[in-house]
């Protein structure tokens, strides 16, 4: 969150729905055999580009 401003669950949802493994992110592990719960490395340039393409927030009246 400190780098992108996205919350943990937003990143998880984006990985599941919007991002392609191997492009925006990649699972890595010490033994060379990554699995679903392994740590992820992110392509910051593509993630930042994805954030810029998101629609602007709409102000709602209360």
From TrEMBL:
Descriptive protein name: Phage excisionase
Organism: Yersinia mollaretii
